[in-house]
Here is the input.
Amino acid sequence: MLSFLLLSTRPEDTAADEELASFLRFTALPAERLQRIRLEAGPLPSLDLDAYAGVFLGGGPFNSSDEPDAKSPVQVRVEREVGALLDEVVARDLPFFGACYGIGTLGTRQGGVADRTYGEPVSAVEVALTPEGRADPLLAGVPDRFQAFVGHEEACRVLPPGAVLLAS
Here is the structure.
C-alpha cells in the first residue's frame, strides 16, 4: 500500500510535530503510511512520486503573497523546490491537499492570485457549497451550508485557470 507525503515548513519542532499528529488524526492514516519532510530544515530530496498515493503541503511561517524582498533565503528555496514538485504533481494528477501555505502555493503556481484581500481572523464561518460543489463527488454527503473554522492572513483571490470553486 502506498504512503502519503507530508511537506512541512514549520521551523519549531513542537509545531511541526503537532501538525504531523493532526494530519495523522484527521486522515486516519497509520504513522508508517505518512512520510514527513521538513522543507525548512534542508533541501527537498529527490523523490519518486510513484511511491506516493498523494501529497499534503501543510502550513507554516511562509505566505505565498509575501513581498519578494521580504522572503528569507529559506523561503525562496522552499518555493522553488515545492513549485517544481507541484508542477509534477499537477501533471500526474496526483492527489494533493494544501493547508494554509499549501493552498496559496499551489494556487499561485498554477496562475491564481493569493493575497491578503480575504484574510480572516481565527473564527467559525458559514461555508456554502456552489452548484459545482454540490455536484462534485468529493463533497458527497456534505451539507449545502456548514460551519468551519478559518483563520489565515491570505487567501486565493483569483482561481487559477481551469480551477473550479466548490465552496465559499
